[in-house]
Amino acid sequence: MSDTREPQQEQASEPQAGERLASARRARDISLSEIAKELHLDEPKVLALEENRFDVLGAPVFAKGHLRKYADLVGVSIDDVLADYYRLNRSAGAPPVIGPKRRLQSDISLAPWIASAIVIAVAVAAAWWWFSLEQGSPTPAADPATGAQAVSPAAVSEPTVGDTVPGDAAAEEEADIESRASGTSNTEAIDDTAAVAAGQAAGPQTDHAESTPAVVSATAADREMSASAVIENPVRLRITFSGDCWTEVTDASGKRLFFDLGIAGRSVNLNGEAPLRVLLGNRDNVAVEVDGESYMIAAEDMRGNTALMTIDSQ
After folding, report:
1. Residue range 153-177, pLDDT digits in tens
2. How many domains is the chain partitioned into structurally?
3. Last residue of a domain, one of 230, 261, 276
């Protein structure tokens, strides 16, 4: 039993905690006042720390803090000093076990949810507006028999006097071209028709068939007399076409005597006040006679395959 007690006595006689620090301080020849200055304590409290009277320092956390700093100043292992402290001061409990840092649950951010709600609300509003617009636009009713959309009576109107019907326009243009080719105009034709109508209205109803030719003949004679009276410097022009050639002939007063496409085998006789202005689209397909004599196109009047001439009486 004596052998068993001897190691326990030796272990009890060894310096522990504060005593270990005091031995190290004296070995380094450091005064008590210097340690007190570094620990920011007064000397009695430093002395109590060296004598392991830790209750003088207050709570265990203060005693352990001063022991750590003291051990660092005198070069003693901090772990050994704290192990001695826990053996001497059982009330302080075992040293805490330091585990991995607990990961706290992060706060839930509401920003993505708010942004998603705003986008959905905008999409719903746009869809509602689009469907309301589609439903609000009127569509014409369809005929159940044919499947075609019904047209309101107001949309279909009768042609008025000033309206132009496509077929009538084409007929009028064709008549105008023919009248220009023959040296007459639509105005003259209308005058003739008016004169015939006036003659029919003036004559007896029984002599209707006999009076019409007389009125037409008189009107044609009057037109020839008025034409000869107006033309002071007349010129006779004959154009013979051997191929296609667009031709335009205008007299001195600016009246268009001919404006048409000449084709092979066609001849046109024109009378007008000199000088005549003649435009030929393809001069090689045309033969020109002026007052019964052949007319040669001058070189200065040629523009490539076209010709622009000013013809006076011979």
Report:
1. 444 444 444 444 444 555 555 555 5
2. 3
3. 230
